[in-house]
Every structure is written in structure tokens, then in C-alpha cells.
Amino acid sequence: MAEGERRAAGALEAEVMAVLQRAGRPLNAAEVQALLASELAYTTVVTILSRMHGKGLLTRAKEGRAFRYAPVSDEPGLVARSMHRTMAAEADREAVLARFVDTLSDQDERLLRELLDGR
């Protein structure tokens, strides 16, 4: 990234989440910082981990003076949580679901029907 250039919204969170998911175990901020592709200040890593925890994306456990962070779910689970939060914020859920279904491919529509029938 060029100097002075800003990341796209959510890009840093996505990068941190990818590091945590690849690790397969809880990491502290220093470990996350060491594994990130971009060079970030330790305080920046701590801030993003704290924000992600506040959003419910990460769990954390105190270890000594630091926290160890882990994703609350795998990637599909996180996407599903995001979809659920979006739906919960909408007044006209029927319209949102109708628009969503209208944009599904035939294959995805069949898959959704199979999943719903299996409930």
C-alpha cells in the first residue's frame, strides 16, 4: 500500500481475522502483529482486536497482562452472523428476503430450498 493511502473499510479486520483463523489457536496481539502481512504498530493491532471483540467477532481470555483472541466462529459462521444482524436491523424483513432470493442463482436457490426442506 502506498504511503498515505487508506485501506478499504473492513480490510484490516479481514486481514486480522484471516491470521487468527489460519493460526487455529488463540493468539495475543504481539503474535497477530508478527503474522500480519502489513507492518502495523502494536497499539494498532491491540485496537483492532479490541474493536473486533466488542463487535462480537472474537473471544478473548486473559493470560498474564495480555489477552489471547480467537474467532467466535469459522468464516461461514461469521458471514451468517453478519447476515442475521443485517436482517435484525431491517423493518421490512420480507422485502429484504424477497430481494435476496430474487438475486440467487438457480443453483443457490435449489440449495436454499434443500436446506429449508431439511430443517
From TrEMBL:
InterPro entries: BlaI_family, WH-like_DNA-bd_sf, WH_DNA-bd_sf. GO terms for biological process: negative regulation of DNA-templated transcription. One of its GO terms (molecular function) is DNA binding. The keyword rRNA processing does not apply. Keywords: DNA-binding, Transcription, Transcription regulation. It holds the Pfam family Penicillinase_R. Belongs to the BlaI transcriptional regulatory family. This is Putative transcriptional regulator. It comes from Actinoallomurus bryophytorum.
